[in-house]
Write a structure and sequence with these properties.
Blueprint lengths: L1 E4 L15 E4 H4 L6 H10 L4 E4 L4 H4 L8 E6 L5 H4 L3 H10 L5 E5 L2
Parallel strand pairs: 1-2, 1-3, 3-4, 4-5
C-alpha cells in the first residue's frame, strides 16, 4: 500500500510500517501545500492513505469525495514517542481503510 505521511508527523514514523511504501510530504516536494491540494495531489500520485495528526482536515475538506483514505492519529503530542503506541492500531486501520473514509486512531 502506498501511504503519504503528512508533514505534521515525524519523518521517522515511516519506518514503523513494514510491507508498505511510505513517503513523506517533504519527500514528495509538497511541503506547505494546503489540505485540499494535498489530498488531490496524493490521490493523483496513487497514494491510497494519508496519515496525519491534523484533526481539522476532516472538517475543512470533503474527504468523502476523495480517492484517498485518511487516518488521523490522535495523541498527546506529535512526537515519535507519543505516536509509537498507536502504530498497531494504525496498521489495523490502514488494512481496512477505503477511499473517502476517515478513521481516527488514538485518544478521543
Amino acid at each position: 500500500m502506498l501511504i503519504l505521511l503528512d508533514e505534521d508527523l515525524p519523518r521517522r514514523l515511516r519506518r514503523q510500517f513494514p510491507g508498505h511504501q511510505v513517503r513523506t510530504v517533504q519527500q514528495q516536494g509538497w511541503g506547505g501545500v494546503g489540505n485540499g491540494e494535498l489530498l488531490r495531489r496524493a490521490a493523483d500520485a496513487g497514494f491510497e492513505i494519508l496519515l496525519t495528526a491534523d484533526q481539522s482536515l476532516i472538517y475543512q475538506q470533503n474527504v468523502a469525495g476523495s480517492a484517498i483514505g485518511v487516518v488521523v492519529l490522535i495523541a498527546r503530542s506529535n512526537t515519535l514517542e507519543d505516536l509509537l503506541p498507536l502504530v498497531p492500531s494504525v496498521i489495523d486501520a490502514i488494512r481496512d481503510e477505503k477511499p473517502g473514509e476517515v478513521r481516527r486512531v488514538g485518544a478521543p
